[in-house]
Amino acid sequence: MNYLAVLISGSGTNLQAIIDAIESGRLPDTQISVVVSNRKAAYGLERARRHGIPTIYHPFLPYRKAGRTREEYDTDLAEMLSDYPIDLVVLAGWMHIFTMEFLRHYCRILNIHPALPGAFPGMHAIEEAYEAYQRGEISETGVMIHWAPDEAVDAGPVAACERVPIYPDDTLESLEERIHAVEHDLYVRTIAEVLGVPLKPETEQS
Ligand code: GAR
Questions:
Q1: Distance from Cα 93 to the centre of ligand 1, integer Å
Q2: CATH code given to domain 2-204
Q3: Pocket residues for ligand 1 (CB within 6 Å)?
Q4: E strands of 63-108, at which residues?
Q5: Quick check: pTM over 0.85?
Q6: Residue 179, C-beta contacts closer than 8 angstroms, at least 6 positions apart
Q7: Over the stretch 9-25, which tens digit does the pLDDT of each residue have?
Q8: 8: which strand partners?
Q9: Which pLDDT tens digit goes with each residue over 116-171?
Q10: Among the atoms of ligand 1, which is closest to the Cα of residue 112?
């Protein structure tokens, strides 16, 4: 069995795609040990609870108020996660940048970012790509899955990436929808590849 820790900050649609792939049998020999959120209201926490997956809420605000550091926050998170079996840490919309106090505990940490390598780092990649398209600067965007520690923020080493076209009649919403659909499929495929488990085709799902 391969064990994942999935870290989120928001809606958790990528988390849901991974849960669905595991429960349908598409992603075999894989289990989510724990889901962590730094935001209490993250809907992804609710998704995890509905599927009986243990959750941890670990906010940074109390640390900041107490004058404590990101290193201390990361050390405590690593300590909490040490209670769970974890082969791969999957960042799925996790909006913190880890310090080495977390990173040194895990050899395999993947992050997903809704842009092509080298383009639009940060929290607003889809909006920025959409605006760049409107200005005629780009004709496509994409999805990247990369290893942490990054070479920069939302950068490589790249584990997988896929191009996503932008069309003249796209709205920001239609582009977001297309990007998220690619993310959900690419993350499941990349996790399978990294874990070395045979991903079952849609038609063979149990
Ligand atoms: C995803 O689009 C992911 O690529 C992005 O956050 C979203 C989370 O959505 N991550 C980043 O922008 C990282 N800089 P989800 O909570 O529905 O999975």
A1: 4
A2: 3.40.50.170
A3: 8, 10-14, 44, 92-93, 112-114, 123, 125, 154, 183
A4: 88-91
A5: yes
A6: 114, 126, 141, 142, 143, 164
A7: 999 999 999 999 999 99
A8: 37
A9: 999 999 999 999 999 999 999 999 999 999 999 876 777 769 999 999 999 999 99
A10: 4
